[in-house]
């Protein structure tokens, strides 16, 4: 799933490609992706792109006062095409194409964006709105962890309000902190040397400072590494720098212990027992049932 660093890099890349370009057509190949009807999608045709920005994990293409907002969900992505087909895409259950944004012709080419979604669970969402806050997911976002107003005091207040909730869930809840998902919450907690199941309100002052630094450094470093990369390079860049997420069974790059996993119904988390849980493996109920 694209998270804050990848969406930030996508926004930067697309800003350079789209600013001042006209959107001539938007074709929806997966009708379930379109979540709004007013204004109609045709309203953005002929508009000029003014900016591309990020709100949490949402990508916002602003054009002549309208906002084409994308949430790429778990398996969505944006692909730049130097030349898009002349004919509109046909809806197909076999195709990964969800939306195509066609731009004005220049130098004999008609470029565009193909927004795709892999897998059978279709969660990608497209909104056309007059104000980004008209998108419910944006309106309910918590603070952005890389802005100046995300201070240690702000994080302390968030954790205190979360009470006994587990740190992992608090970090990745978009209404609490915007932009952190499953992967970077694993990476942040590994950097902070904290258990994903540690209660949010149990941190000492020193632990709070460590967690705050881990949030800012982990995300900030990922943004810097991704800056200037094309969309096609971002997935590989992310995977190449993950210490524990998606690394089950591999040695921890810090201590050499084996990275472990806890599985849930539709996701999993990864952690290092030596670095994060005092050497004790966390209970994995799903795996325990399979081993009985």
UniProtKB/TrEMBL annotation:
<keyword id="KW-0456">Lyase</keyword>
<dbReference type="GO" id="GO:0008270">
    <property type="term" value="F:zinc ion binding"/>
</dbReference>
<keyword id="KW-0862">Zinc</keyword>
<dbReference type="Pfam" id="PF06831">
    <property type="entry name" value="H2TH"/>
</dbReference>
<dbReference type="GO" id="GO:0140078">
    <property type="term" value="F:class I DNA-(apurinic or apyrimidinic site) endonuclease activity"/>
</dbReference>
<dbReference type="Pfam" id="PF06827">
    <property type="entry name" value="zf-FPG_IleRS"/>
</dbReference>
<dbReference type="InterPro" id="IPR010663">
    <property type="entry name" value="Znf_FPG/IleRS"/>
</dbReference>
<keyword id="KW-0234">DNA repair</keyword>
<dbReference type="InterPro" id="IPR035937">
    <property type="entry name" value="FPG_N"/>
</dbReference>
<dbReference type="InterPro" id="IPR010979">
    <property type="entry name" value="Ribosomal_uS13-like_H2TH"/>
</dbReference>
<dbReference type="Pfam" id="PF01149">
    <property type="entry name" value="Fapy_DNA_glyco"/>
</dbReference>
<dbReference type="InterPro" id="IPR012319">
    <property type="entry name" value="FPG_cat"/>
</dbReference>
<keyword id="KW-0511">Multifunctional enzyme</keyword>
<dbReference type="GO" id="GO:0034039">
    <property type="term" value="F:8-oxo-7,8-dihydroguanine DNA N-glycosylase activity"/>
</dbReference>
<keyword id="KW-0378">Hydrolase</keyword>
<dbReference type="GO" id="GO:0006284">
    <property type="term" value="P:base-excision repair"/>
</dbReference>
<dbReference type="InterPro" id="IPR000214">
    <property type="entry name" value="Znf_DNA_glyclase/AP_lyase"/>
</dbReference>
<keyword id="KW-0479">Metal-binding</keyword>
<keyword id="KW-0227">DNA damage</keyword>
<feature type="domain" description="Formamidopyrimidine-DNA glycosylase catalytic">
    <location>
        <begin position="2"/>
        <end position="93"/>
    </location>
</feature>
<protein>
    <submittedName>
        <fullName>Formamidopyrimidine-DNA glycosylase</fullName>
        <ecNumber>3.2.2.23</ecNumber>
        <ecNumber>4.2.99.18</ecNumber>
    </submittedName>
</protein>
<comment type="similarity">
    <text>Belongs to the FPG family.</text>
</comment>
<keyword id="KW-0863">Zinc-finger</keyword>
<dbReference type="InterPro" id="IPR015886">
    <property type="entry name" value="H2TH_FPG"/>
</dbReference>
<keyword id="KW-0326">Glycosidase</keyword>
<dbReference type="GO" id="GO:0003684">
    <property type="term" value="F:damaged DNA binding"/>
</dbReference>
<keyword id="KW-0238">DNA-binding</keyword>
<feature type="domain" description="FPG-type">
    <location>
        <begin position="243"/>
        <end position="277"/>
    </location>
</feature>
């Amino acid at each position: 799933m694209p998270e804050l660093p990848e969406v930030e890099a996508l926004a930067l890349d697309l800003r350079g490609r789209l600013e001042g370009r006209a959107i001539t057509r938007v074709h929806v190949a997966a009708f379930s992706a379109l979540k709004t009807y007013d204004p109609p999608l045709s309203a953005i045709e002929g508009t000029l792109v003014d900016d591309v920005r990020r709100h949490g994990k949402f990508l916002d293409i602003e054009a002549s006062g309208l906002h084409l907002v994308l949430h790429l969900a778990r398996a969505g992505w944006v692909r730049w095409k130097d030349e898009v087909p002349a004919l509109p895409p046909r809806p197909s259950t076999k195709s990964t194409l969800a939306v195509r944004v066609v731009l004005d012709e220049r130098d004999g080419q008609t470029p565009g964006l193909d927004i795709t979604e892999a897998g059978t669970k279709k969660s990608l969402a497209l909104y056309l709105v007059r104000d980004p806050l008209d998108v419910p997911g944006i309106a309910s976002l918590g603070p952005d962890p890389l802005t100046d107003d995300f201070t240690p005091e702000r994080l302390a207040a968030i954790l205190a309000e979360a009470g006994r909730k587990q740190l992992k869930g608090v970090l990745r809840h978009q209404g609490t902190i915007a932009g952190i998902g499953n992967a970077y919450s694993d990476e942040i907690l590994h950097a902070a040397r904290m258990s994903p199941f540690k209660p949010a309100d149990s941190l000492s002052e020193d632990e709070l400072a460590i967690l705050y630094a881990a949030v800012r450094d982990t995300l900030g470093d990922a943004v810097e590494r991704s800056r200037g990369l094309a969309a096609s390079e971002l997935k590989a860049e992310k995977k190449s720098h993950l210490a524990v997420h998606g690394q089950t069974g591999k040695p921890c790059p810090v201590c050499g212990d084996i990275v472990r996993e806890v599985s849930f119904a539709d996701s999993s988390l990864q952690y290092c027992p030596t670095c994060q849980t005092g050497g004790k493996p966390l209970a994995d109920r799903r795996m325990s049932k399979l081993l009985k």
